[in-house]
UniProtKB/TrEMBL annotation:
InterPro entries: Cyt_c-like_dom, Cyt_c-like_dom_sf, Cytochrome_c4-like, Cytochrome_c_Oxidase_Subunit. Keywords: Heme, Iron, Metal-binding. It comes from the Bacteria. Residues 1-98, 112-202 form the Cytochrome c domain. Pfam families: Cytochrom_C. PROSITE patterns: CYTC. It comes from Massilia agilis. This is C-type cytochrome.
Length: 225
């Protein structure tokens, strides 16, 4: 009997390395095919970097995909039956990651377009009461906890598509939806300029700013004042 037990124990030990470890890294393996290892992002592809974004922002987006307020079929399908507590664990995992950034491809946008984008990002459009992007997303554009994302490492077509989604109501945030106001107030050339300028900036290793500080220029439901 003893020999049988020992043999069974040896066989179990041999099989053990084949088991997938029960970690969040293993559980979010379905995410890395599109978003890269540790949410680093992937070169020349539409899917955004997740690593280092505020956990509150990532959680809000996961809930929005699950509930259909953001519409992208693969994400809607993957998240459909996951509870809030698990979505928060996913958000916290990616928020804690800080892998080396990908090298951004050189932009071929005209200098005048980049200059217009920089002006809007850093100064806003006062005539339309649109604040500068840096007023909420921080001067380093790395975002602010708990709910404002960084804007670095994004492709121009991704930025343009998200602003368009807010404009036409296919992407929404908690009321008051400040980004819906901003996006619907920008003209198409202004959207193109902002997208081109943001896409030209490299990803930094800086973390999102802590909550608090200066009062935001707009009331945003996803970022309590």
């Amino acid at each position: 009997m003893g020999a049988v037990v020992l043999a069974g124990s040896a066989m179990a030990q041999q099989r053990a390395p084949d088991r997938i470890p029960d970690t969040m890294e293993a559980r979010v393996a379905a995410c890395v095919g599109c978003h890269g290892l540790q949410g680093r992002g992937v070169a020349n592809v539409y899917f955004p970097r997740l690593a280092g974004k505020p956990a509150g922002y990532l959680y809000n987006q996961l809930v929005a995909f699950r509930d259909g307020r953001r519409r992208y079929v693969p994400m809607n399908y993957l998240l459909e039956y996951l509870p809030n507590s698990y979505l928060m664990r996913m958000a916290e995992y990616f928020a804690a990651q800080n892998p080396p950034p990908l090298v951004q491809p050189a932009t071929n946008a005209p200098p005048a377009l980049l200059a217009d984008g920089k002006r809007i990002v850093t100064q806003g459009v006062p005539g339309k009461k649109i604040p500068a992007c840096i007023a909420c997303h921080t001067p380093e554009l790395t975002g602010r906890e708990p709910g404002i994302p960084g804007l670095l490492g994004l492709r121009a077509d991704y930025v343009s598509a998200q602003l368009g989604a807010w404009r036409y109501g296919t992407r929404t945030a908690l009321a008051p939806d400040c980004m819906q106001f901003v996006a619907s107030s920008l003209s198409e050339p202004e959207v193109a300029a902002v997208a081109a300028y943001l896409a030209s900036l490299p990803v930094s290793g800086n973390r999102p700013a802590k909550a608090g500080g200066a009062r935001l220029p707009l009331a945003c439901g996803s970022q309590p004042q």
